[in-house]
Amino acid sequence: MKSLLSIAVLILFVTVTSCGQTNSKSKSNSTKTLTFPIQKSEAEWRKILSPISFEVMVKRGTEPPFRNAYNDNHQKGIYVSAATGEPLFSSEDKFESGSGWPSFTKAIKAGVITVVTDNSHGMIRDEVIETKTGLHLGHVFDDGPKDKGGKRYCMNSAALKFIKK
Question: Is residue 88 within a helix (H) or strand (E), and if so which, with residue range?
Answer without folding.
Answer: strand 87-90
